[in-house]
Amino acid sequence: MESPDKSELKERERSNWTSAAEGWRRRDELLRKGGEPVTERMLELSGISSGSRLLDIASGTGEPAISAAQIVGESGKVIGTDLVDEMLAVAREKIGKMNLGNIEFHCIDAETLDFTTGSFDAVTIRWGLMFMPEPQACLAAAHKALKQNGHISLACWAAPEKNPFVGVLIKTLSKYMDIPAPPPGTPGIFAFSDSERLQDVLTSAGFRNIVLEEMAIDVIEVDDGRAYWEAISDLAAPVMALVRQLEESVRSDYIDEVIKVADAMKQGETLRMRGTTWIVSAVK
Prior knowledge:
Elements: H1 6-26, H2 28-46, E1 53-57, H3 65-72, E2 77-82, H4 85-98, E3 103-107, E4 120-126, H5 135-145, E5 146-157, H6 164-173, H7 195-204, E6 208-222, H8 225-235, H9 237-243, H10 248-264, E7 271-283
Helix pairs in contact: 1-4, 1-8, 1-9, 6-10, 8-10
């Protein structure tokens, strides 16, 4: 089977995440809460403070850019970028309500970023790098945009078995359709689960002092399996693209099984679907 070229892969990602934008709007508070520990750690590692300039790549619906804007204050500046303007529309709505004047969002392909050399104190990429067909191009652009000794901090999901919040979907789906292993280097949620690959791509882009740490979080907290399905079906765009390929009756059976499996994982009054992410810091 011939692998799609990079332009096809990019359009696939753009289409997937465009279709998910409204779901991300609906689940904004759940996403903010689940990702908050990662956002806080990334911004801590970025070293930003009042007056700093930060570039956030793959901002989606606004984090960690919005949190960064609150740290850098009126004397600082945050620029957020994303491939999907429908996602950024949600982010713009939020900063409008918060009356934040030190942050802007622009729809730009991360692999073609071309900011002035040395224009930012820090760069962040939270759960975005793994969906890029040419991540090395993004990191090279980020390296150029950073000041000397500036920091990059990023997050990428760790191994599939450490991420039941989405692993439940994929493992169950494999009973209903053939899911071939993607060719090496193909973008996807676990494209950078291998820590060595993460280190290599950062080193190749010119970064140094690379440090990786793992963080386990409750990605989704809901009442039960049905609530989990309703939430994750709004959020997990790449998996939902596969689920939509199932015939309607088969899809119904699949959903029922996902709900059953998730319910069996519930402990106490709340169903907590866990995830583990790499958090990586490096210096220009």
